[in-house]
Structures are given as C-alpha cells and as structure tokens.
Design brief:
By secondary structure, this protein is α+β, with helices and mostly antiparallel strands. The strands form two sheets. An eight-stranded antiparallel barrel has the order 1-8-7-3-2-9-10-12. Strand 5 and strand 6 form a beta hairpin. The longest helix has 17 residues. It is globular and about 50 Å long. It starts with a strand and ends in a 20-residue tail after the last helix.
C-alpha cells in the first residue's frame, strides 16, 4: 500500500487556531489520539555486496552475480504501536485512516500473531504476551519504507504496511527475525478525516519515567501537522495515485495561508538502518 504525505510545523501558540480551522474544513470534531511506539532494530547489520577490483571482466561479473544473489535487502526499523485512547476502535488501522481503492480493491493487510508489551510502575518495558481477544489493549505492527526518490509527485510517497495484532507471543517472533527493542516514544494529538485524507496534529513525546507522570513533549515549541492519504494497489492502478495526489493538493490549497504544507526532505523519513 502506498502512502502520500505532506507536513507542516505549527507553533504551539497557534495550535488552538489551526485545530479550529481543521475542524471546520473537515466538518467534524477533532478526535484525540495517543500512541505508544516501540521501535525495534535488527541485531545484525545490513549485508552489502562486495565487488572485486581488478581481474578479468568475466571473473568480476561472476563474483558480482554471486554476491548479489547472497546479498540481503536493506534493513529497517520496525514499530509496534499501542493505541492508548480508551474509546478507539479495535483493528489494524486507527480511527480516521481511510484507504483510497477501487470498489473491488483489497487493502492487502493481513492479521498475524503479535506482541503485547507494557510499562510497569517504574517505567521499565517488559514482555507481557496477551492472547485475550477481549482485551482493551490494541497493537499494530508497522513498517514504513524509505520515501521514493526524485520529484515525480508534489508530495512524499512511500510504501507502508500496518498489521493488526490479534494475540500470541510476538516477542519470540521479533527475536526470531533478529530484532530487538531499542527505544520508545509517544505521539499525542488530534485526528480528523477529510474525504479520503487523514489529518494529524500532534507532538512526539518522551515516555513517562513512571506511571505517576505523563509523557513530555520532545519539543514543546511546536506541533507537527501531517496530512496523508493511503492508496491501495497504486502500482497496478496509477489512476488511483493520481486521484490521491489531486485530493492532497486540493487540501493543501484549501489550507494555504493557515499552514504551508510541504513535502519533507526524503532523509527525514528514512527508516533504514545505517
């Protein structure tokens, strides 16, 4: 699935004003959201193909082909995301996420076994697999590819995958994939939906040091505005991508003068392990 993105920075002093404008444009009340992101890093470094220097061309080509055959793809950071809003709906995508697809299209997102990880009173992360389907805890396994290079479109474009977690011990699953937990952060803000576009106005926050404390903004001076649109089967149906870009650009023009939505630098959203 493809995701089309635009971003803007909103000063804290203008937060209430911008949120009010967004509510008017979307014709809905902003819905609060609070997500806890557990970031996982592969325990092994990415493997690169070694190209022979010197020697005959035939030997070098043969060596290169063998190296490419055994070369691993780029490795990425992966996220396990917990929905901390009590009245949020169950399932993979958060409330407000709309997928642009044709009538008979499929979202391509399947359910797999996952992990439930919580923080105890001291703030220490511990593995607590949860197999109870009636549990109020909601987790999603997230993958975000590096944005596409070049300026083919007036917005950021990347491949994504969100997989709802239904239970089981994904701690063993992550370990089997040779991934280990490396850090945690929270996203706290409001969500709105305009046509097929998801609008998020939020702050990244540090995790609380204990259950008696609240997450603290990493940068209390600003909020991040993200407008995104997801396109199912965008490669096979380029007309859907064109429709998605047109809708995103239309919203950008509507908000011009209030916020300046732009495509961010590709490296800022690079999720590859270096």
């Amino acid at each position: 699935m493809h995701e089309l993105l635009l971003h803007a920075s909103v000063p804290t002093a203008r937060h209430a004003q911008v949120l009010s404008v967004l509510a008017g444009v979307a014709a809905m009340q902003p819905q609060p959201f609070h997500e806890r992101h557990l970031i996982y890093k592969p325990t092994r470094p990415p493997t690169r193909a070694a190209v022979q220097i010197g020697g005959s061309q035939a030997v070098q080509q043969n060596s290169t082909q063998k190296a490419k055959a055994g070369m691993q793809e780029d490795l990425f950071y992966l996220h396990l995301v917990e929905d901390l809003v009590e009245d949020a709906g169950k399932g993979g995508m958060s409330n407000g996420d709309v997928v642009m697809e044709d009538v008979h299209g499929l979202s391509g997102e399947d359910e797999v076994t996952g992990i439930i990880e919580n923080e105890n009173s001291s703030g220490t992360i511990q593995d607590t697999p949860n197999t109870d389907p009636k549990s109020s805890t909601r987790w999603t396994f997230q993958f975000r590819d590096v944005p596409e290079p070049g300026n083919r479109r007036p917005c950021t474009t990347r491949l994504i995958a969100d997989t709802p977690i239904t239970g089981g011990d994904a701690s063993a699953f992550m370990s089997a994939m040779e991934y280990t937990h490396t850090s945690t952060h929270h996203l706290i803000g409001h969500r709105l939906t305009h046509l097929s576009t998801s609008i998020l106005l939020f702050r990244p926050c540090r995790p609380p040091s204990s259950s008696a404390h609240k997450p603290e903004p990493i940068d209390p001076r600003t909020y991040i505005l993200q407008v995104s649109l997801r396109v199912s089967n965008g490669i096979a149906k380029p007309q859907l991508m064109s429709r998605g870009v047109k809708e995103l650009m239309s919203l950008k023009e509507t908000l011009r003068g209030v916020v300046e939505l732009e495509s961010v630098e590709r490296g800022m959203l690079d999720t590859r392990v270096r």
